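Recall that a protein's primary structure is simply its ordered list of amino acids. Everything else, from secondary elements to tertiary packing, is in principle encoded there. The following example makes that idea concrete.
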Amino acid sequence: MPRRPDPTRKPELLGQILEHLRGRSLATVSFRTLAEALGVSTYVFVYHFGNRAQLIGEIVRAVVGRNDALLEVDPAGLDEAAFSKHVGKLWAEASSERGRDMQRLAFEAALLEVVAADDEGTARGAVSRWHEFVTAWLTSRGVPAARAKTEARAFVDGLHGLQYDAVVGRDVKPVSTAFKTHLESFVSKVPTLAR
């Protein structure tokens, strides 16, 4: 009788893979390189992840999904202060050393999806999810839908630009200052948008 699979093994492996990739590119991922780096058999990866494409898919979902809990909050329940605190949690994670490494992988995955013409890609969809979240928050504050959509895009895309700066510049302090200015400017103008 075959052994029962350990349900904790796949998430454990995925966590080890993410840590391994903090200083590497998604392009370097293969069962062989991971097996050597993590000291396990290539068959372990085949068993848990199937093929390389499925493994990359799992990695991308884990990288992109690291802030899913923030998107599960009902934005309509957030006043300006709570919204600022909520987005501040995103920035705290994204600007940490680990967060910058994960964001670099997310950027790489999104660009690979662009090259592959994968319009429904997981990494590419992450930005849209934040557009939707901020749009919903703005409309809950009385901003007309069309204006909310445009303002949300400007805010979220600015936020992603700051994340990019934090990744490539590596000097987080001035970028964090710019983030605070970006957030405060956005939140302070919301009452005027609702008119």
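The first helix runs from residue 9 to 21. The radius of gyration is 19 Å.
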